[in-house]
């Protein structure tokens, strides 16, 4: 079920917005007179004074069309209207309560989620070998690296995104170093983003996304 007062809100907001932009149209006068007659938000004098001032500034045809519908008292207000009335504090307080402040964005948390997406998004080595860098893959690569260090003569079977390959100890070490460098670059980028958030040079999620994250990785975090 709709609240009756909620039906007034768009009318009042549109009228006050038009007034702030120094617009004066016939519809504004009609709305303001109606709000005054209905004593909306207990400020009828303001609405009627606003309606009178708007009407006084209209062209002759629009002004006459409105005057034909006014009481003698309302018409007298139009004749004497010279200044724009100030909006009552009580009305401004009501209007301010309609618009909730947006929830603040946790830029640090967003930067962390962006770093995680980059860190775990994978890398491409030698332009063709795509290596997964999710946390489980990082652990497996670390284990494989440690193994070949102790057994340098062993050829390792290693599973990439595109399938199994056979790697020498040197190739396995190169992969481990590339993954380690990628992960460190992702964390270094997050650290720089945080520093720029503190400095005020980054203040939006879009600016975090636009930062120079490691280019060999994926994606944006979920929003």
Structure commentary:
- This is DUF4376 domain-containing protein.
- It holds the Pfam family DUF4376.
- Residues 107-210 form the DUF4376 domain.
- It comes from Rhizobium hainanense.
- By secondary structure, this protein is mainly alpha-helical.
- It folds into two domains: 4-96, no CATH class; 107-210, no CATH class.
- Helix content is 60%, strand content 7%.
- It has ten helices and four strands.
- The protein has helices spanning 4-20, 26-37, 44-56, 60-67, 72-80, 89-96, 107-119, 135-150, 169-199, 205-210; strands at residues 123-125, 129-131, 156-160, 163-167.
- The strands form two sheets. Strands 1-2 form a two-stranded antiparallel ribbon. Strands 3-4 form a two-stranded antiparallel ribbon.
- A hairpin with a 3-residue loop joins strand 1 and strand 2.
- Helix 2 (26-37) packs antiparallel against helix 3.
- It is rod-shaped, with a radius of gyration of 34 Å.
- It starts with a helix and ends in a 13-residue tail after the last helix.
Shape: rod-shaped
Strand order, main sheet: write it out. Answer: 1-2
| Rg (C-alpha, Å) | 34 Å
Mean pLDDT: 86
Query: Percent of residues in beta strands?
Result: 5-15%
Structural class designation: mainly alpha
Q: Ranges with pLDDT <50 over ≥5 residues?
A: 1-5, 217-223
Give me the secondary-structure topology.
Blueprint: H1 4-20, H2 26-37, H3 44-56, H4 60-67, H5 72-80, H6 89-96, H7 107-119, E1 123-125, E2 129-131, H8 135-150, E3 156-160, E4 163-167, H9 169-199, H10 205-210
Antiparallel strand pairs: 1-2, 3-4
Pfam families: DUF4376
Domain DUF4376: 107-210
Protein name: DUF4376 domain-containing protein
